[in-house]
Write a structure and sequence with these properties.
globular, mainly alpha
Length: about 230
């Protein structure tokens, strides 16, 4: 099996494991058999058992397969990629600050969106997606695309799947939260469903995110080798 095929297989196992185990019939059957806590432990174990080999194989076979595009020397694209990464890091850091009713196991509370949730109700998934799309722009090899595409696929489909489940289980308060927010960043704000106030802006998380971004820019080559973001 070639490097590209192996990366694609491991990526499929990683994504497939998430979606199969979290599907309603499979999850319900397993929780009924082994309990919620043991199921979550098994879910995490399977995720690690597929993700770690995927990362190891990709690290050993970067830039495998044919190159479909080469945008590395296109200055506007490079600036766009860095902006996407800055946004991804800031949003990811902010996702840890505000309790999110869209997260499994978190109650809906009063159903009122706050902070980063006014921008998107799935900040972590959006951050994963931005990370993946940014790296796909800079890495046009088939093997790299197969690897980095797992992040937006997991983010976008995972967010949709999680919404469906929470709408079934979360009751009226989650439905109200869902109606007042959006998955795609800024859509709820542009449509008038939300308005940002000074108290909503994550000043601390933005500062932490910018610091982490600057550290990434400085250390990317040393940590990951090769071309920046490649």
């Amino acid at each position: 099996m070639g490097a590209v095929q192996l990366i694609a297989l491991l990526a499929t196992l990683f994504i497939g494991g998430h979606f199969v185990l979290s599907s309603v019939p499979v999850r319900a059957a397993m929780v009924g058999a082994i309990g919620e806590r043991l199921f979550r432990g098994l879910y995490s174990l399977i995720a690690l058992a597929t993700f770690i080999p995927l990362v190891v194989v990709f690290a050993r076979h970067k830039h495998a397969g044919a190159m479909l595009w080469n945008l590395r020397t296109v200055a506007p694209v490079r600036w766009l990629v860095w902006l996407m990464m800055l946004a991804a890091i800031v949003i990811f850091v902010a996702s840890f600050i505000t309790p999110n009713p869209a997260t499994i196991g978190v109650p809906a509370g009063d159903g009122t969106p706050r902070g980063i949730l006014k921008l998107t109700r799935h900040p972590a998934f959006v951050a994963f997606s931005l990370f993946g799309f940014a790296h796909m722009l800079m890495n046009g090899w088939i093997g790299d695309i197969a690897f980095f595409a797992t992040f937006p696929l997991l983010g976008l489909v995972g967010a949709w799947h999680q919404d469906r489940r929470k709408l079934r289980e979360g009751g009226e308060r989650y439905c109200r939260f869902f109606d007042q927010t959006s998955l795609m960043p800024g859509v709820a704000l542009l449509s008038g469903r939300q308005r940002l106030s000074a108290g909503d802006f994550p000043w601390l998380t933005t500062a932490i995110g910018i610091a982490a971004f600057l550290a990434l820019v400085a250390l990317h080559h040393r940590l990951f080798g090769g071309y920046p973001l490649g």
